[in-house]
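Long-time lurker, first post. I've been practising inverse folding by hand and with some scripts of my own, and I keep getting stuck on stretches where the structure tokens seem ambiguous. Below is the full token string for one chain I'm working on. Before anyone asks, I'm not after the true native sequence, just a reasonable design that respects the backbone. If someone could post their per-position residues I'd love to compare against what I wrote down in my notebook.
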């Protein structure tokens, strides 16, 4: 197999395969694996992914063992010298072949994403399209940001070239199980790195689909390697001495742990893309209907499971404030929430798991205990803990609210007297991923963009709006100054500076003290 699969030696067809994905039958697998529980002893640990509400099995398998993780890393290490010297044109051709497969089978990928994550099918289709679109953007970024440059004329030249790091570990999240790891993998292999990819244990089926697509595209053996598992598998991967870096998208708590693990290893690249307690500020608006539309997209798209979702709505009070909050409450209550395959399609699907739903209600209870005034209380639908309706709650700046990311459909509302007060409150967070301003007075934007602390800052657009032609990352606990998006090319290679001359020669004027 071109894509290293730890289960291939003892592959068995899983109990249930996905309709429309029969070509991959026999690779939803069960194989040898292990788990660590307080000791280094290994034993079998089976796990499965299920659709969040229906609880139907989507994928079943076992976690990769220490030996299998080691084999994956060593396969990547062995493949790297050849891959990094492969002509760029040939690497591009392989990545374009992967793009074509994703485009031709986008419907299958979208169906799998929707079923495994519970997100709506229309959103899953958008994610599948983004996976294919990332290829052209990554090629452009590589050629514009990491191309060989310098003074090439004459016998003396100064040149900057870019080289790959080597073996990079990629840990994928559950909320965009195809798009986000793909945003690391594509620029990494284009730059000449090899990859060991561990999907989220909540979305292994999507990760395996992606690996199979790379195999069909003809990626050489060892260039992309797949391992399944949870925290133990991830720990074995990031602690492996033969990886040259980690590319991670996920929670800030996990990111802090990885940063600690790499603290004494400055030779390894670490790119962290994490979440945020994101503010959306409203100031000087008259078109409340348009503002409400952007607010709903910011807070509730993907059931609030985007790292850029607005968590705090900060309103500069004026004569339109009461009308605005009333409209937000009414429109949020009217948003449709349902199963991924429901018709007509809902705006929001489910959260990733019943446990995620319980976390939303626990956080909601904290907000109420801190003095929050509910405007719209979240509810579970038809007894499904993962199917949660929007929540809207009014807080005050004095409320003792934890500065944490609630990864679900909950929006806190704060009223302030001025734009400067709004910006001060917006910046009162340890995070710094996204922020937005809705205003019809452009001078407000000048003040906002100059003083807000965030990596994605939008004007009159939802906080969840991001362009693949731009950098994507944040400051504070939202990242470690290694933005992804178009700038992912930057952390996938390092510059090599050269001064070159075609011949050896002694200058006419030697240094002082060189008297021969």
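-- Answer (accepted) --
I ran through it position by position. Result:
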């Amino acid at each position: 197999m071109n894509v290293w699969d730890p289960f291939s030696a003892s592959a068995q067809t899983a109990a249930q395969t996905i309709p429309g994905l029969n070509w991959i039958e026999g690779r939803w697998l069960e194989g040898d694996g292990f788990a660590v529980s307080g000791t280094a002893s290994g034993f079998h640990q089976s796990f499965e992914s299920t659709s969040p509400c229906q609880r139907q099995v989507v994928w079943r398998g076992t976690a990769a063992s220490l030996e299998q993780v080691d084999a994956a890393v060593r396969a990547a290490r062995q493949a790297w010298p050849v891959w990094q010297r492969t002509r760029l044109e040939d690497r591009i051709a392989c990545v374009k072949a992967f793009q074509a497969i994703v485009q031709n089978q986008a419907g299958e990928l979208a169906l799998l994403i929707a079923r495994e994550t519970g997100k709506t099918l229309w959103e899953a289709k958008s994610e599948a399209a983004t996976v294919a679109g990332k290829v052209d953007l990554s090629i452009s970024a590589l050629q514009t940001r990491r191309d060989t440059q310098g003074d090439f004329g004459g016998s003396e030249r100064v040149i900057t070239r870019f080289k790959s790091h080597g073996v990079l570990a990629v840990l994928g999240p559950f909320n965009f199980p195809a798009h986000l790891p793909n945003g690391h993998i594509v620029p990494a292999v284009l730059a000449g790195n090899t990859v060991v990819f561990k999907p989220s244990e909540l979305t292994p089926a999507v990760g395996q689909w992606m690996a199979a697509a790379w195999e069909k595209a003809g990626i050489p053996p060892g260039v992309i390697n797949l391992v399944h598992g949870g925290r133990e598998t991830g720990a074995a991967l990031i602690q492996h001495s033969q990886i040259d870096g980690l590319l991670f998208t996920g929670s800030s708590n996990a990111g802090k742990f990885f940063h600690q693990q790499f603290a004494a290893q400055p030779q390894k690249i670490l790119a962290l893309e994490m979440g945020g307690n994101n503010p959306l500020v409203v100031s000087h608006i008259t078109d409340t209907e348009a503002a409400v539309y952007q607010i709903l997209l910011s807070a509730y798209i993907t059931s609030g499971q985007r790292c850029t979702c607005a968590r705090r709505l900060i309103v500069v009070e004026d004569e339109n404030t009461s009308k605005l909050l009333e409209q937000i409450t009414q429109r949020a209550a009217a948003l449709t929430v349902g199963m991924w395959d429901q018709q007509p399609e809902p705006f929001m699907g489910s959260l990733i798991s019943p446990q995620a739903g319980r976390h939303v209600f626990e956080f909601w209870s904290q907000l109420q205990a801190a003095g929050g005034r509910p405007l719209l209380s979240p509810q579970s639908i038809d007894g499904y803990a993962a199917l949660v309706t929007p929540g809207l709650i009014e807080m005050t700046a004095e409320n003792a609210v934890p500065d944490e990311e609630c990864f679900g459909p909950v929006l806190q509302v704060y009223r302030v007297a001025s734009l400067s007060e709004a910006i001060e409150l917006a910046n009162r967070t340890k995070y710094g991923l996204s922020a937005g301003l809705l205003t019809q007075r452009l001078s407000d934007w000048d003040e906002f963009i100059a003083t807000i602390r965030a990596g994605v800052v939008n004007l009159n657009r939802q906080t969840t709006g991001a362009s693949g032609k731009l950098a994507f990352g944040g400051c504070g606990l939202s990242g470690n100054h290694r933005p992804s998006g178009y700038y992912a090319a930057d952390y996938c290679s390092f510059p090599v500076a050269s001064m070159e001359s075609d011949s050896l020669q002694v200058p006419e004027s030697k240094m002082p003290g060189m008297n021969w």
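A couple of notes from the structure itself: The radius of gyration is 25 Å. Confidence is low (pLDDT under 50) at residues 1-44. Happy to go over any region you disagree with.
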